[in-house]
Write a structure and sequence with these properties.
By secondary structure, the chain is an alpha/beta fold. The chain is about 45% helix and about 15% strand. The strands form two sheets. The chain has an eight-stranded mixed β-sheet. An eight-stranded parallel beta barrel has the order 9-10-11-12-13-14-15-16, surrounded by four helices. The radius of gyration is 25 Å and the shape is globular. It binds phosphoenolpyruvate and magnesium ion.
Length: about 575
């Protein structure tokens, strides 16, 4: 028996015989060509592009019926396929280097893939998978290689592969592929999104799973914990079979919860909302019972492009989101560029301490032209649904006032232009700096709500760079300092009768649900699929119990005491699915 640990990206347990998916292209031929062959090579390229387009449209058509929303990924694939810059570069390389088209194409595609892989923002870095997927298809068509098709499988199998593209994942039949595991990949890739949409348990990032398996091996995939077990012993197999049954029961229970309100046994109501990084993720919201979008990150508009997004482009995207999610709210966070996210079009100077630098609202206040364009777009989209605005990285009242002043100017301009907007749309401040947390009482007087961004609040309070793995052990939401800050923020907000949500990752961790509930949080915003479990915990306790829990948690001196207390409490009350 061998047990491997990777990243569980799609929950559930499955067991079955393994099927090793081989990459059909082992190497790409590279050879010189004569000038006279150039037009023939360009012709082959055009044909391969057309064939690839047809293939993508065909898969899109197939997935549409069942997973219409997920099929939008293929619109992205079509955009990549038709990307003028990429096509131009391929033809330029073909002409300059006089090499065969496969070799020219593979070189340019790799350049784009590498550029994406180096982006710091995880969700954009993962989009490299889409470019890989499309370029693999083009190469197959250039080389006229038949891809191994997962739709042709005869038996139920666990697929093991180096990597799986979103389209390969989408073409899996749930009756045949009962789970999959790959060497590479991350949580936010489209492949992972697809796996979750298809409800196929999946573990990625295993590094070398393809070389650890042999034909006829029996494999267990634990997509919740991220384990892959090769040839389990009898005891392990039995234990996993029992867990599988328990999970089925738990899942049925969770689905019943979908349409039930998120409230404690004694009636305290909490809103559970979704975090969104890309507009296409809106599709996942209703499935898990989210009550709107609690954090709509807008950086995707600005990254990976040479120009700035205009008002119309943003307006139409915000309008669609507002309409789709209505009557639930969409809380749009204004641009949070800087830190680990850079936009090429903004040409910001490199800084020694970017997380302490020209970031978020600081950048927006220095570039009111860019800021106002976004505010105007949000305002104009506001009559189409329930939009709210929140400013990131507010460090004190002056910044909040300055931002609100620009918002006022934007409103005045729209009035003169006779453009509609909701004058009463709520405007909130993210509380993610210690200075904002300490002055929450002052900020609460001039804002409609708070949203606690714990990813940054923890980083700045414990002085620990959130992306530096060497000090990751210090990144502790349960640190007594963080608990005290959260308590103060909520208390200050409620004193001024404004509501508080939390949208950092801490909000998605079930082990903090009771604490946050007990401290009086009004809304939690997280990845959509984390919502059902959170709802189950909240519905399983009383507000009174949660308040007791929070009081006790805040009485401890160390992080460990807090986490031990939480673990024991959850275990005794059977609040977590172990
Ligand atoms: C946060 O800091 O908690 C947050 C939600 O914002 P981001 O992760 O985008 O910085
Ligand atoms: Mg933040």
């Amino acid at each position: 028996m061998v047990k491997l640990e990777g990243i569980g990206v799609s929950p559930g347990i499955a067991m079955g015989e393994m099927y090793l998916l081989k990459n059909a292209i082992s190497s790409i031929p590279s050879y010189s060509i004569e000038k006279s062959q150039l037009s023939g090579e360009i012709d082959r390229f055009k044909k391969a592009l057309i064939k690839t387009e047809n293939e993508i449209r065909e898969i899109q058509g197939k997935v549409k019926g069942e997973f219409r929303k997920e099929a939008r990924i293929f619109d992205v694939h079509l955009l990549i396929l038709k990307d003028k810059r990429m096509i131009r570069e391929v033809i330029q390389r073909l002409r300059e280097k006089r090499v065969n088209i496969e070799s020219a194409f593979a070189f340019v595609a790799q350049k784009f893939i590498t550029a994406f892989a180096q982006i710091d923002a995880e969700y954009l870095r993962e989009r490299k998978v889409d470019i890989e997927d499309v370029s693999k298809r083009v190469l197959h068509n250039l080389l006229e290689v038949q891809r191994e098709s997962l739709s042709q499988l005869k038996e139920k199998v666990v697929v093991i592969a180096h990597s799986l593209s979103p389209s390969e994942t989408a073409s899996m039949s749930r009756d045949k592929v009962i789970a999959f595991a790959t060497n590479v990949g991350g949580k936010t890739s489209h492949t992972a999104i697809m796996a979750r949409a298809l409800e196929i348990p999946a573990v990625v990032g295993l590094k070398d799973v393809t070389s650890r398996v042999q034909s006829e091996d029996l494999i267990i995939i634990d997509g919740s914990k991220g384990f892959v077990i090769i040839n389990p012993d009898e005891e392990t197999l039995e234990s996993y079979k029992r867990q599988q049954e328990d999970l089925l029961v738990a899942k049925r229970e969770l689905l019943i919860l979908k349409n039930l309100p998120c409230q404690t046994k004694d009636g305290r109501r909490i809103k559970l909302r979704s975090n969104i990084e890309l507009p296409q993720e809106i599709a996942h919201i209703p499935f898990y019972g989210a009550e709107g979008i609690g954090l709509y990150r807008t950086e995707f508009f600005y990254l990976n492009r040479q120009d700035l997004p205009g008002e119309e482009e943003q307006y139409s995207s915000y309008k669609t989101a507002a309409e789709k999610v209505n009557p639930y709210p969409v809380i749009i966070r204004t641009l949070d560029i800087g830190g680990d996210k850079f936009a090429s079009s903004l040409q910001a100077p490199s800084e020694l301490n970017p997380f302490l630098g020209w970031r978020a609202i600081r950048f927006c206040l220095a570039r009111p032209d860019i800021f106002k364009t976004q505010l105007r777009a949000i305002l104009r989209a506001s009559p189409f649904g329930n939009l709210k605005i929140m400013y990131p990285m507010i460090s004190g009242i002056e910044e909040l006032r300055k931002a609100n002043f620009i918002l006022k100017e934007a409103k005045a301009e729209l009035k003169i232009e006779e453009k509609d907007f909701n004058n009463d749309l709520e405007v909130g401040a993210m509380i993610e700096t210690p200075s904002a947390a300490m002055t929450a009482d002052i900020l609460a007087k001039e804002t409609d709500f708070f949203s606690i961004g714990t990813n940054d609040l923890i980083q700045y309070s414990i002085a620990i760079d959130r992306i530096n793995e060497k000090i990751a052990y210090l990144y502790e939401p349960a640190h007594p300092a963080i608990l005290r800050l959260i308590k103060n923020i909520i208390k200050a907000a409620h004193k001024e009768k404004i509501w508080v949500e939390m949208c950092g990752e801490m909000a998605a961790d079930p082990s903090f649900a009771l604490l946050l509930l007990g401290l009086g949080i009004d809304a939690l915003s997280m990845s959509p699929f984390a919502i059902p479990e959170m709802k189950k915990i909240i519905r399983g306790v009383t507000f009174q119990e949660a308040k007791e829990f929070a009081k006790n948690a805040l009485s401890f001196e160390t992080t460990k005491e807090v986490t031990d207390y939480a673990r024991t409490f959850y275990k005794e009350r059977k609040l977590l699915n172990e």
